[in-house]
Design a protein that fits this description.
elongated; about 30% strand; 5-stranded antiparallel β-sheet; 9 strands; alpha+beta; about 35% helix; minor pseudopilin epsh fold
Length: about 170
């Protein structure tokens, strides 16, 4: 016997049954992990899109003040993708989609994981940075993914913008 407890000349290695057991365990672990990963990935894409839109809306408000004009933010489903356009009074959302050089800020095209938009989808910021229209209540925009997860952006009459991971925002 050698130091591993084997007779000299004995076969060493794994049996086919041992290899198949390991493969089966790995397949089961993968089957359990993939749906969780896909849900996490879709959620992270939705959140990153919401944060980018929040940032772009704040930039639109600042641009409106700096240029002494009104900026319109329109979020809509176009050609199967959710898009946000940022236009001045001199152009339209359709013109902005056709030629991005006419936009006040570059059009934001959201990833395919963002499948729907709801609530108020058009906001205007005047030269003072205030929201135009919509009365004295906060206006809300919702972004949704294919699983129904919904995140929200709220715009106050004073033009302040905040986001939350629940809809409606608390």
């Amino acid at each position: 016997m050698n130091r591993w407890g084997m007779r000299p000349g004995a076969e060493q290695g794994f049996s086919l049954i041992e290899v198949m057991a390991v493969v089966a365990i790995m397949a089961l672990a993968t089957a359990i992990a993939i749906p969780s990963y896909q849900a996490w990935y879709a959620k992270s894409k939705l959140k990153s899109s919401l944060l980018e839109l929040n940032s772009n809306m704040n930039m639109a408000r600042t641009v409106a003040k700096n240029r002494n004009t009104t900026i319109t933010v329109t979020v809509a489903l176009s050609n199967g993708r959710v898009r946000a356009t940022f236009t001045t009074t001199a152009n339209t959302s359709a013109a902005c989609l056709a030629d991005s050089k006419t936009c006040a800020i570059e059009t934001q095209v959201m990833p395919i994981e963002v499948t729907a938009v709801g609530g108020t989808t058009t906001f205007q910021f005047n030269s003072l940075g205030l929201r135009v229209g919509g009365g004295t209540a906060n206006q809300a925009l919702q972004l949704m993914d294919r699983t129904g997860l919904t995140y929200e952006i709220q715009v106050t009459p004073a033009g302040r913008i905040r986001w939350c991971t629940t809809s409606p925002c608390p």
